[in-house]
Amino acid sequence: xxxxxxxxxxxxxxxxxxxxxxxxxxxxxxxxxxxxxxxxxxxxxxxxxxxxxxxxxxxxxxxxxxxxxxxxxxxxxxxxxxxxxxxxxxxxxxxxxxxxxxxxxxx
Length: 107
What we know:
By secondary structure, the protein is mainly β.
């Protein structure tokens, strides 16, 4: 699913109501991909669906689900110290912060 080394994988909190969990992968191919695994009690490849992909300018160093909005917001960090906040449900970038730029840089 990625064209290069996967550098990080992170799972969101398990959703008991829907018996599902989302996870995100980050890669040196500059893509973040978000997947949903349904019907965890009967786990198998057929239960995994690709939800969305986001692209950075540089390779992905780390990702994490937002602790206050788990399952909807994803934070990513790329080489050259740019952190981005993505809306998984809205399928868009919400914010970009670049280190050394004197604060937040909107994009």
